[in-house]
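Recall that a protein's primary structure is simply its ordered list of amino acids. Everything else, from secondary elements to tertiary packing, is in principle encoded there. The following example makes that idea concrete.
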Amino acid sequence: MSDLINIIRRRVMPVFGAPVNVRIKTVKIPEMETLNQTANHLKGEWPLKLSLRDGRFFHFKIDPIISLNGGNVVSKREVSKGYIRGTVKERFTTEDWEIQISGFLKSDNGQYPQQEVKNLIEILSAPEAIKVENQLLLAFDIHYIVVEKYDFPHTAGSDRQAFDIKAFSDYDVPLFVKK
């Protein structure tokens, strides 16, 4: 700290031509709190677990990045010979949440995470809705997803594998009503 004060004195004193008293006060910057919270995310604050009905599951060792996109289903009708420009819109319902999950798998032994990749593909390719456990998804009332696509792109480093998953929210709705 005294080195910093001496540097300030050397640079400021010539400007004012007289000795300068320098006091340095530490302050908390709100942005630093946000950065600390973001860093905590990387330490396992937002874990994701995927589960199937038969009990098989996959728990990500490193928290993936989850993005959500939503919207409304809107029908547009054109009015012929109308005096008002544009269309008449009718909102029918909300769309499913579109979910993008990205991250990487890393092995504990320094080798390619072959077993982790195999286990994840087994869960993602199951012909059923996948139960998800994650605080962000829970905040949006998402308990199940249906996977549309998954990708394992080339990844630098022999001990990791990147992945991208595109999925949609789903609800466990019984199709048959028992009387």
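The beta strands are 49-51, 57-59, 65-69, 72-78, 87-94, 98-106, 130-133, 144-151, 160-170. Residues 30-45 form the longest helix (16 residues).
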